[in-house]
Design a protein that fits this description.
- By secondary structure, the protein is of the alpha+beta class.
- The protein is built from 5 helices and 4 strands.
- The protein has a 4-stranded antiparallel sheet.
- Helix 2 packs across helix 3.
- The two termini are 54 Å apart.
Length: 158
């Protein structure tokens, strides 16, 4: 398993943002897949990254010091020495943002269509019909509280 497979989701994304924010200050290649680095956090932390044996990686931060934890500082150094991985993630984020934007546009379009349809229907209604619809809506809204309390009951008991 690789380093990114064993780190927490929080360390993954915070490490990514630390790297993108320029918090990795110095990286020295010690051996094949082994690096020593300085990462700026609330203070400077010494990071030892062993890509081939991720659990041998270490950091002087309070979260990981003396523990076999892959912290955000270690992940940031990993990204610093793996630009292809950063490009892959950047591309995934870009695709996600495009999908999110498309979904938002689709939602807004549907909202406008429904809004226009509702306005058209309400304008055709008499004042009494509008009042009755509003009363029904308010009753249903108020009853949601009670519905949630009794949602575990079903017709089998009655």
């Amino acid at each position: 398993m690789g380093l990114l497979d064993i780190c927490s989701n929080n360390s993954y994304w915070r490490g990514y943002h630390y790297f993108k924010g320029g918090m990795v200050k110095e990286v020295i290649k010690v051996d094949d897949g082994v690096y020593d680095a300085i990462v700026e956090g609330s203070k400077e932390y010494k990071v030892h990254l062993d890509i081939n044996h991720p659990r041998k990686s270490s950091c002087s931060c309070p979260h990981a010091d003396g523990k076999r934890i892959i912290c955000k500082h270690i992940v940031a150094v990993y990204f610093a020495v793996n630009p292809k991985e950063v490009k892959r993630i950047d591309k995934e984020i870009e695709m996600y943002e495009e999908e999110r934007k498309e979904a938002e546009e689709k939602y807004n379009k549907a909202y406008e269509e429904v809004r226009e349809s509702v306005i058209e229907r309400v304008e055709k209604m008499s004042n009494e019909e509008v009042k009755q619809m509003l009363i029904n809506y308010l009753i249903n809204s108020e009853m949601e509280y009670y519905d949630k309390q009794y949602e575990d009951y079903n017709d089998d008991y009655f």
